[in-house]
Amino acid sequence: MCNNMEIGGDFFLTKGDIFPDSHNSTLNSLFPGILLSTCRSAISEILKEIEFTVFSKVALVPSFTCHVCVEPFVKSGYNVIPYPVEKDLSIDWEKMLSVIDTYQPSILLVHSYFGLNTIKGHGPFIEIIRNKGVLVIEDETQVMFSSFPHLNADFFIGSIRKWFPIPDGAFLHGINKISQHFNQDKELEACKLQGMLMKGEFLKSPNNSNKAYRLEQVKAEQFLDSREKTYGISDFSIKFLGSINWSSFKASRKRNYDKLYEIISSQKGIQCVLPRSEDGDVPFMFPVFVDEGRKELQQFLVKNKIYPTIIWACPDDLLEKVDSTAKYIYDHILCFHCDQRYDLDDMERIGSVIKEYYR
Description:
Elements (H helix, E strand, L loop, with lengths): L6 E2 L18 H4 L3 E3 L2 H11 L8 E5 L8 H5 L3 E5 L9 H11 L3 E4 L12 H9 L3 E5 L15 E5 L10 E4 L12 H19 L7 H14 L9 H7 L4 H19 L5 E3 L13 E5 L3 H10 L2 E2 L16 H9 E4 L7 H15 L1
Parallel strand pairs: 1-11, 3-4, 3-5, 5-6, 6-7
Antiparallel strand pairs: 2-8, 7-8, 9-10, 10-12
């Protein structure tokens, strides 16, 4: 990618991507269960499934998470309690058991972060938790392609669309509605595709100053947030997923992540949140903690056409409940894109701009 092109931000499409003509028969093994439009609807379907079997309307979620993992519980009448997440994004499972004994939840939501195994040591604890009658949901959104051992959970969910330029896509495994047919969300599909196509047109011309695509993509996300009904995954997303070279996709993400780690790990002013990736890891993004002036660093990067993201704000329903460690994470984290759109030269460019800022 050349130096005047953007790095980061939302995915984009060109008209040539609209009708991918290949099909990959391995999708069912990659994403077992039901393929839905969104991950929030996957949580909602789980809550419908267990509605008459739970012993309490209390759910535990990570203290560092997104609003999508909280809102379906709140809308279903649950008291949502955050459990502690350490600064390295790991879980202290002894603390987890203490929180469970205190609040007596019926549901526990767990997720690893950024493609790496941040739930190590879960083995004996998950069985203890399940023996207490607590249902376990593993949200595999950020680790769905990594090969380390996942939880022995009751339900598995994940947002596929976060990884690719597709309008929708999520999976749900563990409920009894596998044969149920869900209509596709054609309105959402059209809205999301419009924004991605507009960005693709913008990026075709380095001198293009029309950034209307950004407003269109914000509108598309707001439209997605407004959807409450459960829909099935769109035909476009299925076809696009069938066109992917999976080995190349995984290798490029790991290569880019490790290059950023090599460049940034010794940089003063920022700290790598996670270590170098291990064999079998497929990184989602590259997170750092900015010691001071996160907003100023982000603005400097944007001026240089690099668009890192503050991945999540603290969900409103957790604001008064999270601990100081979680508050630190929300206030200091900044995430760089290391996905399949980019190569090692792009990662070097990110590193050069960061070094220029801290010079």
